[in-house]
Amino acid sequence: MMRERAVHFENGRGEPLTGVLHAPDESAPAATHGVVWLSAGQKIRQGAWRMNVEIARSLAARGVPVLRFDFSGIGDSGGDHRHGDAVMDFYGFIQSGGYADEAVLGARLLQEQTGVERVVFGGLCGGAITGLFAASRLKGVVAGHCLIDLPVTISSSARQRYLETHADELLRARPGETDTVLMLYLKKLADLEAWRRLFRGESDYKLIKEMARIKSRTFAERLLAQSPAALKGPLEAVIARVAPAPPTAGGVDGAPSAATITGADVGVDPSVAAAMQASGEVKNQQVAAIFAEALAAGQTVRFLNSSAYHPTFMGYFGLGLFGEHFDAAGWAKRGVKLSVAEDTNHIFSIDSAQAALFDAVDESLVMAGVRLPPRAR
Amino acid sequence: MRPPKLALGDFFEGPAGPLFGVADDPPEGFEGAPVGVVTVAPFMEERQDTHELYRALGRHLAGRGVPTFRFDLRGTGDAHGAWDEATVEGWLDDIARAVSLHRERTGVREIALLGLRFGALLAAAAATRVGAARLALVQPVLKGSAYLMDVLRAHLAAEMVLHKRAGVTREALVETLQSGRAVNLFGYRLTPAQYRGIQPLDLAAALDGFDGQSLVVDVVRTEQARGSKELEALKAHPSGRVTVARAVEAQTLYVEGKLRNVQSENLARLLDTFFGVTS
Fold this sequence. Notes:
Chain A is α/β, with parallel strands linked by helices. Chain A is built from 15 helices and eight strands. In chain A, α4 links the parallel β5 (118-124) and β6. Chain A binds chain B through residues 4-6, 8, 16, 18, 20, 41-46, 48-51, 53-54, 73-76, 80-81, 83, 85, 87, 90, 179-180, 182-183, 222, 343-345, 347-351, 354, and chain B through 5, 8-11, 18, 20, 22, 44-45, 48, 51, 55, 76-78, 80, 82-83, 158, 160-164, 184, 186-188, 255-261.
């Protein structure tokens, strides 16, 4: 039987933090590695669909102790919230390593209470980046990372205020929601007034422009294919202006593009990344630095991206780091692996995404040197 | 076994395995609280999204001398078990256990159950068997069957957005459940047993058999907002023991369980009056 117990510790300001430690069965061999699984953004310690609980139980059942806890200002932990009215300020706080201290304390607590020497950090989104920041202060301790949808931009209240009055751009900030708008848009295809507004260059034009940027040519072409025949010509002209087809000359015929990392068709091209950059999203310059630090310290990194988030990841981080052609074998030698879960939202809730998530967690531990039996199916 | 440190948040022994609970105790000086409150959490992601509201209400009520206990039903939160192993029957057992624990721990004469949305429907279903004296039902789900249809509809809308095509129909999902297979709703596998357990739940029917007082609260965003006609209709409940009130809260009560900014003062005031405490 696994043993789960409540843990209470304090952050640097003396605020009480609450968590759960999942310890393996007492008869299991002493663990060398443990996992600190960190909460995402505003989520309480169980995560969406209780994913954190499921991950922790799955690992503890196979001999790996796991700690998960609420950061200060969240869930059952003490302390005030870390922002005013704008949740994006709070995201910005996390994306700048605001909770790294608490993750470091969590890792130490896990070591003290379970006797593990090495720690693997993992988490979705804000949890992922918090672990990377914390690892730079625990170099001899951290063996690896499991980074699910690692955020690579910095959010702020200024950006939020702007987005609140620019709904079209909000779509870019939350690429996963683009499809909602596309659905609404396609429903309006029969509405002639909508098309007139589009060609007069009013709001709908902006919408198409933003969607086209986000989703690149692949997206625009899908839209074209579903348009009434008579409108294809003019719409194509609009799209050509806002999302020019990437130059085809100079490419290597048949070589995998950045869009085909581990085989997933995610439709990213460098021109899209450039367009996103030009349109005001702020790149988090610290990500590349803390990632490089992790590699230099010999820590392994298992990235898993949802297809909803992958374009942003590549646009702000992946293309610059991995180049247009992700050399999977080359990066594997450096202890880095990246895959994309297809047709997946940011919370990995569908069956195939849940499976991809659990697989990535397991693989991150194996990469970090843990002898992990396969999980029961 | 050490006693659980419920004031900090801890596991306690439930009927079928460990459950997790947090007790909000009144400060020193409050003696012999007449009523203690046990909260019942809502369904699936709403449990996460209302964590902060439940926490805020627990602290508020404790500050008025009402010891309040919130806990995770099996298969939810930090409680034992997988979500898809949990059943309505098991959840009702868990509520009964939490109530008896809260009685023992605080010595209160009366227990009130406080629930929001599906948690309100579960609380009403449990009220008589746990011997509750009062029920506070915030934006309650009225019928399990209609609620399941809403949940399935929301799921299909999300699927359509994700896959850019209409997948299956609600009827097909219902057929899947009736043929004994689970349906993944936002990451939670709704099981045929849960479906069968939730479908017959009916708030008005549960209140028929309940001999305590009930408060139904409709939460609206502005004074001018039209409230729910269905909740309003509960005023005419044949028991004559149901009060329906409106709480105007400018912000949503669903805040993803996170930040300390949930605004629930007007709701809290209604609860104070209902529980007979003053500020």
